[in-house]
Amino acid sequence: VQLVESGGGLVQAGGSLRLSCAASGFTFSTYTMSWYRQAPGKERELVAVIRRGGSTNYADSIKGRFIISRDDAKNTVYLQMNSLKPEDTAVYYCCAGYASWGQGTQVTVSS
Questions:
Q1: Average pLDDT per run of 10 along the chain, which is 111 residues long?
Q2: Which of 11, 30, 87, 102 is least surrounded by Cβ atoms within 10 Å, i.e. has the fewest?
């Protein structure tokens, strides 16, 4: 299993970013995919989940601002992040099947 995140960066509060996670080494379309984040000094937390078939769940802290999606033809999962807040600053990780992790991508939101 290989997961490679991209799309992180520095953005002002109120801005948007789209994270991508390119997957390989497993049958992507059959896996539940998720995004987690970890801020400095805090535990890793679940941000969003998308299951086989497309059903989703979101953490309350980002509901209405972030959208998770997947493209099974491209073996890629996305996280569209809108109306970003400084408290969204964290390393964002892609996860496959709640067991395999990418290396993470830094998102920094300035006030």
A1: 97 98 97 97 97 96 97 98 98 96 98 94
A2: 30
